[in-house]
Design goal:
- The structure holds two protein chains of two kinds.
- Chain A is an alpha+beta fold.
- Chain A has four helices and eleven strands, in the order E-H-E-E-H-E-E-E-H-E-H-E-E-E-E.
- Chain A has two domains: about 80 residues, Nuclear Transport Factor 2, Chain: A (Roll); about 60 residues, Nuclear Transport Factor 2, Chain: A, CATH 3.10.450.
- In chain A, about 35% of the residues are buried.
- The model of chain A has no long low-confidence stretch (mean pLDDT about 95).
- Chain B is α/β, with parallel strands linked by helices.
- Chain B has two domains: about 60 residues, Alpha-Beta Plaits; about 200 residues, Rossmann fold (3-Layer(aba) Sandwich), CATH 3.40.50.150.
- Chain B contains ten helices and 13 strands.
- In chain B, the strands form two sheets. In chain B, strands 5, 6, 7, 8, 9, 10, 11, 12 and 13 form a nine-stranded mixed β-sheet that branches.
- The model of chain B has no long low-confidence stretch (mean pLDDT about 95).
- Classes of the chains: A alpha+beta, B alpha/beta.
- Strand 4 of chain A pairs antiparallel with strand 7 of chain B.
Chain lengths: ~150, ~300
Amino acid sequence: MRYNELRKREVDTIKDLLLENYGFVTPKSWMLYYLGKEKVWILKEEFFNLPLEKFNVETMGFYLCHFEHNIFRLSIQGAQIVGETATKNILDISLKDAWELLRGFDIDKETNLEATYIILRTEAGIIGVGKNHKTKILCQIKKNRRVRNLN
Amino acid sequence: MSSKKPVFKDSFKEYFESLIPGELDSFIESCKKPLLESIRVNDLKITSKKLKENLVKQGWEIEDVPFYENALIIKKRTSSLGNTLEHFTGQFYVQEQSSMIPPLVLNPKSTDTVLDCCASPGSKTTQLSNMMKNKGIIVANDMGLGRVIILSSNLERMGCENVIVTNGNGNRFSNFPEMFDKILLDAPCTGYGAIRKDWSIAKMFNPKSYKFLANIQKDLLRNCWTALKPKGEMVYSTCTLTKEENEDNVIEFLERNPDAKIENIKLKGFEKHRGIGLKESIRIWPHRIDMEGFFIAKLVKK
């Protein structure tokens, strides 16, 4: 797995997007790296004390978001971390709606939230982000995380 | 269950009769019983008390696990364990009780650098990460690429931030001498302790298999030991019940490595569940304690 540190300009853009979209202030300790092409991960400084180049690393740290050109989409884990202190663009949804999304369906829901990807919160916790289409929330849960049946 | 009826070969019966004379029938009966369902609470996301309350509200019946405050036994549930929002959001991991013991015995600190040599699917890695409060470093390795993908997915779901996932043969860690404070070697094994989960394992009983795997385990033990720092600790565990893959391996290792000593495992409730001829270790027989069969030994580098 190749990993590359984000350029300062890219880090600043992500910080701005987190603040602008979710009112989230990026902790100073976050070290942002690309693992693969467009996936941004947060790595720990201590990781670099180890001979990573000899380890055959597959992944490390935690997956924050997908970031390319016009797309900035938080991962489920990223949404959970950001959502803890986010002040805007969080949508509370019912458990019924959450299950629809978890099964891969979109839900009908009107919202006046502005961000393209909004954080979805249920009484059982944050389940990731959905794509905001004003009258619909489009499922963004990747296939391998979806729930196939309810029994 | 993958097999409709458990088949216990004569060779299986003879082998285990020699290890537990007079207890074979109750051992075989216990192998036919399904395992108690248990979960481990991710205390980075929710407390055990709160999760219990939430699940009880949904009609579940839950009991505490006596030896671990972050574990719960599910006596009755209203949906399958994997199909709950609590599971999706990483509030718990479905994990057999005995599989929770090796990380408890290793007891990592939040400043440690830990190697989990055969980590997939990640039950113990995520437990170690929880115990370390997402601090320090865990190198979680597995040999199969497909298994590494499952491991990464579970780490993501459980919100583990301090883990480096690596892919390759665990023996290669001998190239990194004295790098780790603690090592968990949950070695690949014949899995006879997991018959309650999969009856087809009993049918596959074959002395060739456990002798072959015992050699693989010996290599892993030797090579991982090189990667352990002086004063470091290693937990060796398997989910099998043959003496060759467990006590014999550890005894031979101690004989060949004068810098190794075995430490007596102190865990409440397991004082009487001890290894054969190796009283410092834990051996879980499913007919003596209602869990999956397991073996755990703790080694310390002088």
